[in-house]
Design goal:
- With about 350 residues, the chain is α/β, with parallel strands linked by helices.
- Helix 3 crosses helix 4 and helix 4 packs parallel to helix 7.
Length: about 350
């Protein structure tokens, strides 16, 4: 028991050492779920409570945002020019714009890591409305991993509560949340938005008791209804490990609870995700050391062979030290040379 207490105390101490780093909140949700409006409410709350925060907009297609973004993808990539230059449609333009922005994302991380007084407490990221563009693209994975490798990071999955009153729509949202959770392996908070229009308690009841969810599906005997019933049994364990909160982006209801849940997710990151990430980094470093040793051994063999045949003119071939090819430099005219938050 004494040893267990010592481990808990050590973990607590480790958690305090990470307090200086801001918590990154990746706001993800279906189109129309109210992500941008919620971002406006969160930004307003941070200003009202004088909490140091940083807002990042990653949606290149939005015409205007109702909040002041510290970093805006639209300042670096021109979405319409990308569509015109590459002959793309709306979704392809958003995806390509995000890919171009990801090539400069090290500059974004540098701005987030910059020392400030008072230090940042939250970094809130607004993602594109087309959920699959961020969650299932290479650029989305790069951005997520870049944040998660340096900051306590969590996902706020925004749900349109009135639309989820239909059981099958509710199940679609839960499956989407489940897929994002298992792909990112980051702590997730289910945010039931628009509670000023429809209360979210019915959804909590469905998550807590699958029989209640089955009762809601009794009037429907379609294949989709039967599938939803089966999926509710499968997802019962998934629900147990999720944090939930009901908020209203319009009235500001439960915004304090939202940030309390964010803090709980940050602690979960430090307890579960960070140790796993450190193990993966260590394993990758060990593989890199082995690769370098193997390359060095090959180089020594090549040098020996070259030295032995130095007198022969036919043995003066070039030695390939590394066959990897650097990626081509970005040539898109719409990319600026430097990403800035306007504070320089």
């Amino acid at each position: 028991m004494a040893d267990t207490g010592g481990q808990a105390e050590e973990a607590s101490s480790s958690g305090r050492s990470e307090d200086a780093k801001p918590t990154v909140v990746l706001v993800i949700g279906m189109a129309g779920s109210g992500k941008t409006t919620l971002l406006q409410r969160l930004s307003s709350h941070l200003h009202t409570t004088q909490t140091p925060g940083y807002i990042i907009n990653l949606d290149p297609a939005v015409t205007q945002v109702p909040y002041g973004a510290n970093i805006d993808i639209r300042d670096t990539v021109n979405y319409k020019n990308v569509m015109k230059q590459y002959g793309l449609g709306p979704n392809g333009g958003i995806l390509t714009s995000l890919n171009l922005f990801a090539t400069r994302f090290d500059q974004v991380i540098s701005l987030c890591e910059k020392q400030r007084d008072p230090p940042l407490k939250y970094i809130i990221v607004d993602t594109p409305g087309q959920i699959e563009i961020f969650t299932w693209s290479a650029s989305g994975a790069i951005i997520t991993e870049a944040f998660a490798s340096g900051f306590p990071t969590m996902i706020a999955f925004i749900i349109d509560t009135p639309r989820c009153a239909h059981p099958q729509t509710f199940m679609s949202n839960m499956l989407q949340a489940c897929s994002i959770l298992y792909k990112s392996k980051l702590p997730m908070l289910l945010v039931f938005n628009k509670t000023d229009v429809s209360r979210h308690e019915f959804a909590l009841d469905w998550m807590a008791d699958f029989e209640t969810f089955h009762v809601a599906l009794q009037a429907d005997s379609s294949y989709a209804s039967t599938l939803s019933k089966s999926l509710s049994l499968v997802l019962e364990e998934f629900y147990c490990n999720l944090k939930t909160v009901g908020v209203s982006a319009v009235t500001g209801e439960n915004i304090d609870e939202f940030f309390t849940s964010v803090e709980a997710c940050a602690e979960e990151y430090l307890k579960f995700y960070k140790p796993e990430m450190d193990r993966k980094v260590q394993a990758r470093n060990e593989l890199e050391v082995q690769r370098q040793a193997k390359e060095l051994s090959r180089l020594n063999l090549d040098r020996t062979a070259t030295g032995q045949s130095a007198g022969s003119s036919s043995s003066g071939g070039k030695i390939a030290l590394d066959a990897r090819v650097r990626p081509p430099a970005q040539s898109a005219d719409e990319l600026d040379g430097h990403i800035s938050d306007g504070s320089d």
